[in-house]
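explain this:
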Amino acid sequence: MGIRFRFFVVLPLLFLGSIALTTLSIVQKWPQAQALWSTVLFAAALQAGYVLSALLKHTIGPATVEGGTAPIGNPKLR
């Protein structure tokens, strides 16, 4: 998502995913602890994926656009 979207999408996706997980936990009759834990893991994975893809976009992306190599081999990006 950090590469695909240029605007802030984590908060709306976090909200929609939390609603979906809450609905699923009610339908499946999960214990509250399991429902909360799954929501926390979803939020952490979503945010980590967004941050890591944004970092990749800003480190590897410029090298590939300029026709260079990865940031380690491209002195302009150090």
